[in-house]
Backbone:
């Protein structure tokens, strides 16, 4: 009786950059053999994520080393390692020695294949590494991928982002923004934001606007002074730093009281003309020179003016917006959100509180590109000159095609939630305005598969609260089968569902409400994947680790 001696481990792994590359392994026989495939091809069973695939005989007849290969199919995924099963299945073929004697014992001890992983989605969008895959074909850029898929990216305005050197850049109309951390330079992914308007005019820190609101002398830029308190204010220069337009403001003198002193941003038309609208202030702030010993805190507040320019009050946080120590940081976004009255508009106002009367002050603060936008959180910088400017929404859509299964599929999204407490949309599959399913982080900070079919709206919410930062959500739709997992946690499911016959995939928004804040990611998408089959619950959880 002839025996197989051993089965060697796979010769190579299968990285995502070579999704369809075959997995090869070798069987060493005790002697040279002849393999006859005229009646069938010998094979070895391979468990790939709960699905049985086969590694088929490829070469080696006439020698003692036989090569078997398994080529992944679209939809195959096994992230904890495939499992090889003994024995070799002749599958209608024959294996004999060189004298024609059959090899009857085809059992072997399977090797450890825990590190042999397979991941073959039909659609993959890796925004960090710029690798886009459509039905096995790789594309090096998002535009080339979208052209092949018949998709589109639109933003009918310019937008800003930080490049890999930490410099603020401007992307033209309909040009995606691949953002980076301005300090660490780490890639964040593609930036997807809702529509916003910056009410601060001339935030390029140059020029002035006729009809500036009252309250003090007008500086030769967009600034105006208010109050006195024995402190003078001077402009020590303007310029750009890392692409950010700035003005250096020097506060100097001896205080007469412990009251505030500061400068106001020139908005004229105000942060928001909508009564009871939430408004968010932000600016880049950096301490340039001076001693902060005699300053108790700094604040970025909303200073109210009525239509005639008369001060009507201020909005400030209940505690200092930031301390003098925080001002030493490179960049800062105020945490202040305020609501304007029906007849008022508001300007951002940078002020500081001295520790008392009779104290010397000499501090220079670099202030760059102030912004006041309607909403509860800060978005990317919107440059302005002598008028307010609106940045339009970022929209990516990909029509369904050969990569999509109308009856059963798995959708995965990987992104970063910039701010918690709002609805973040990672990806949505749409049939029309009413029928859809998608991945989102809810305003209650939970990962959710939300779906709507003829039976009404349904949702499957993952357990636990999503932490601020990276979020990975994977979900399946199948006949009477919805399931979702996030960040490697437990899986939740529902049995009531009719699959959506979808027309397109929307990335980073809900696919319909283009101007609605709740409909957008308002953050970074790092990756999207789609598998045209219902992957196992185990793989669904592993996908989100």
Residues:
């Amino acid at each position: 009786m002839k025996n197989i001696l051993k089965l060697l481990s796979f010769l190579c792994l299968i990285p995502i950059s070579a999704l369809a590359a075959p997995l090869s392994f070798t069987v060493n026989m005790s002697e040279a053999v002849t393999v006859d495939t005229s009646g069938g091809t010998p094979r070895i069973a391979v468990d790939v994520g709960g699905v049985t695939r086969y590694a088929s005989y490829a070469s080696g007849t006439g020698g003692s080393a036989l090569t078997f290969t398994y080529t992944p199919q679209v939809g195959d995924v096994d992230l904890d390692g495939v499992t090889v099963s003994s024995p070799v299945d002749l599958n209608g073929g024959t294996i004999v020695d060189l004298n024609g004697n059959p090899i009857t014992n085809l059992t072997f001890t399977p090797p450890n294949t825990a590190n042999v992983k397979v991941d073959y989605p039909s659609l993959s969008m890796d925004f960090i590494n710029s690798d886009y895959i459509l039905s096995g074909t790789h594309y090096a850029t998002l535009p080339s991928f979208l052209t092949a898929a018949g998709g589109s990216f639109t933003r009918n305005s310019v937008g800003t982002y930080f490049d890999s050197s930490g410099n603020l850049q401007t992307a033209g109309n309909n040009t995606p923004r691949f953002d980076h951390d301005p300090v660490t330079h780490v890639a964040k992914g593609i930036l997807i934001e809702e529509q916003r308007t910056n009410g601060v005019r001339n935030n390029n820190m140059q020029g002035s606007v006729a009809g500036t609101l009252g309250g003090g002398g007008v500086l030769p830029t967009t600034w105006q002074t208010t109050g006195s308190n024995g402190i003078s204010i001077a402009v020590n220069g303007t310029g750009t730093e890392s692409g950010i337009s700035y003005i250096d403001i020097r506060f100097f003198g001896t205080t007469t009281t412990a009251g505030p002193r500061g400068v106001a941003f020139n908005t004229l038309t105000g942060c928001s003309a909508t009564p009871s609208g939430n408004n968010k202030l932000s600016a880049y702030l950096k301490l340039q020179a001076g001693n902060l010993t005699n300053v108790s805190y700094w604040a970025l507040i909303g200073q109210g003016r009525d239509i005639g320019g008369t001060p009507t009050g201020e909005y400030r946080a209940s505690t200092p917006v930031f301390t003098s120590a925080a001002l030493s940081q490179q960049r800062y976004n105020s945490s202040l959100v305020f609501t304007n009255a029906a007849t008022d508009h508001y300007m951002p106002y940078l002020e500081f509180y001295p520790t008392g009367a009779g104290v010397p002050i000499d501090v220079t603060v670099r202030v760059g590109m102030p912004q006041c936008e309607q909403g509860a959180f800060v978005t990317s910088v919107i440059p302005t000159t002598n008028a307010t400017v609106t940045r339009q929404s970022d929209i990516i859509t990909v029509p369904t095609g050969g990569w999509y299964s109308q009856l059963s599929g798995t959708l995965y999204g990987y992104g970063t939630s910039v701010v918690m407490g709002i609805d973040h949309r990672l990806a949505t599959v749409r049939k029309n305005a009413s029928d859809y399913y998608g991945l989102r982080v809810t305003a209650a900070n939970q990962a959710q598969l939300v779906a709507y079919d003829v039976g009404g709206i349904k949702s499957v919410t993952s357990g636990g609260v999503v932490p601020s930062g990276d979020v990975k959500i994977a979900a399946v739709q199948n006949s009477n089968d919805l399931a979702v997992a996030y960040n490697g946690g437990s899986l939740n499911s529902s049995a009531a569902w009719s699959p959506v016959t979808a027309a397109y995939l929307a990335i980073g928004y809900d696919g319909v409400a283009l101007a609605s804040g709740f409909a957008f990611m308002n953050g970074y998408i790092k990756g999207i994947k789609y598998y045209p089959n219902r992957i196992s619950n185990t793989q669904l959880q592993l996908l989100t680790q």
Q: What stands out?
A: The chain is about 5% helix and 45% strand. The longest strand covers residues 360-374. Residues 3 and 327 are 76 Å apart (CA to CA).
